[in-house]
Specification:
By secondary structure, this protein is an alpha+beta fold. The protein contains 4 helices and 14 strands. The protein binds magnesium ion.
Length: 254
Amino acid sequence: MALKNPAQIDQMRPAGKFVAGVLSSLRDVARAGMSLKDLDAHAHRMIDDAGAHSVYLGYHPSFGAIPYPGVLCTSVNDAALHGLPSDRVLEDGDVLSVDFAAQVQGWVADSAITFQVGSTTPEAQKLIAATEQALAAGIAAAVPGGRMGDISAAIGAVGRGAGYGINADFGGHGVGRTMHEDPHVANLGKPGTGLKLKAGLVIAIEPWFMAGGDEYVIDDDGWTIRTADGSLAAHAEHTVAITKDGPLILTARD
Ligand code: MG
């Protein structure tokens, strides 16, 4: 696991800023009647215009039935993670999670937001808010001298406290020259356990909660992860550098 020095963390800022800007733009343009592919094309244009590089397009781990076909993960309603940008057309009130990572000047940043398209509902807004609160709690625990379990426990406490389903099979990860590096950042854990956190560690922290139970299912495409009970899911993620002055959110949005 590679620690970054302060100069390297500074070099990661453009990637973080770019990823944040794309997510903000997607939230601005997303509306009922657009397809997930339309959103993907919007992000792809921004990548091309910036001279950035997609780390999703063509990514083909063993579990995927096909190489990843887009530059975004677009997960709608009961889809939680890794939803493929398909021809599905967004409808008013859809709960849309967009996960986006890109490489800029040789460094990667990774971030995700969940929002409703058009009309909102209290049920979905409560779930989204809890996911964002868990992300904030996890980030607050990302300090030198702490333990990885402090981050995991902080996330889990918010989700369990709100009565939401959590599955720790998928979680956060180290980020650097590539998207997925050590260590794993679980969304459930015990305080005071696990890896000692040090300045220079850069991690993606990414709680995802399910409105119902803890179980998920995977579509035949090998990618899309859905709640097993059909309940809503939400996901929030930032790339965070642990510094001697505390957590630095590289993907902070304006
Ligand atoms: Mg991500």
